[in-house]
Amino acid sequence: MKKIIHAYFNSIFFFATALLIFSSEADASICSVGGGGGGCLRGGVPLHRTLHRTFIPKKICPCENLNVASKSNLNSPIVITYEDLLAAYAPSNDLEYYFTSSDSTYQMNIGAVDLVNPQHWVMPSCYLGSNDYGEGIEPSTTPYQSNFPNATHCKIYKYPTEEYFEYYQFTKDAITLVGNVFVDLSTNVPEVDDVSFLMTPLNLDINTTFTSGDSITVEYYSIVYHQEISPYGFGTLTTPDGDIEVLALLNNYEEKLYIEGIDPVSVTEKVLVFISKDGHQLNLMLSENSPASGNATIDWMEYIRILYNPNSVSDLDNAARKFSLSPNYPNPFNPGTMIRYELKEASNVSLKIYDQLGKEVAELINEEKPAGTYEEKFDGSKLASGIYFCQLKAGDLIATRKLMLMK
Question: Which of 23, 189, 211, 402 is most enclosed, with most CB atoms within 10 A?
């Protein structure tokens, strides 16, 4: 339970959070842009699968100082605007969401707080998995749009026994979560929850500080969270898909769990967020005893990149088009499936299969390949039924696909 709640609030800031708007690759609530885009909140397992949001008594949650944004007077080399977000989350775009294993740690030089001089960060090389439970849709195409007439974006999660809708409003000044709808598919009775929660002010730049908080009550316990977002720096981030110019922000997060009859339990975390004007994003959760600058230890990472339409100009997108990893066929499969990939230039190629914990279970190829289109067969006869991930590496480029083995 702690990890579920914790994952919800760790990335709830980030317009980083809100910016994570919509991915067809995202169980972690980073949302898909296709189909009109939408907005979402968090990394990790969506909170709605476990908890229903209600506000707890004010004596536990003093909210007078929450949802506050401020600016100073520094000239900002990077400014992320309302127009940037609309372009990033256009219906013609798509979004890929990747995450690291939750039982591993990673090392990265995160530099230091510097609002004047540019810095250079390098994303650690590691396994990246993905999920595809969510998608972005136009609010007007949903059955609950009349409950939230001001919503401009919507995200829907589809599971075997339930569906969950999140409605967002984008304006020139802010991104706001305006409502949630939970539907139990066994009864088809919707639970409609009106919300007015500020996700992030706009514009977002090196001057932005942001304080927010909320609370939920579930049966016999309550959770209160508080977070303070402050500027960390700006510069270049090296990713598996190339270099991007980013704004860096630090989220100091605190969560308190109240259970009747026992003392409150507190959890604190630091989350470092890198985001570009094009919507590409990296979120890092620092380990509890990690230094807050220099060589840091990372407990968990999530990496999001926008795939722009062919008429858009984007260095990151151009780099990504140098190779491709197609969906395997058949999928689901038993016990064999074909994996097709394309290289636009000669490269050292690695094609590996991982389980859901990030453990390597098969290496299909690891050698130099000329440009061309290839197919490899994966035999899962010795593996248990379940979800696996196929990861293709070609030089500095990485692509991941989800495989489903059903026996």
Answer: 23
